[in-house]
């Protein structure tokens, strides 16, 4: 399992599109971290994602269509 947690900190700005290159990423926690904006289109590559935890995040826009292709996703 490959997990990244960038939650509960004082970051600002948007999610780095480079995270979409972590094709083996299964869990990403971005809760309470001060990041916002849209979810990067590069996240289309995260086909193994099981958990995308974004509570208290300031994301804008619609949920991207590609999240429907994250067939292993169990928690959003």
TrEMBL record:
InterPro entries: Leu-rich_rpt, LRR_Rcpt-Like_S/T_Kinase. It is found in: Membrane. Signal peptide: none annotated. It comes from the Eukaryota. This is Uncharacterized protein. It is a single-pass type I membrane protein. Its main location: membrane. One of its GO terms (cellular component) is plasma membrane.
């Amino acid at each position: 399992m490959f997990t990244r947690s960038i939650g509960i900190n004082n970051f600002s700005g948007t999610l780095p599109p480079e995270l979409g290159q972590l094709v083996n990423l299964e869990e990403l926690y971005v809760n309470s971290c001060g990041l916002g904006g849209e979810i990067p289109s590069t996240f289309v590559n995260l086909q193994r994602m099981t958990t995308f935890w974004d509570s208290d995040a300031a994301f804008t826009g619609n949920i991207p269509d590609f999240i429907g292709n994250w067939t292993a996703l169990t928690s959003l």
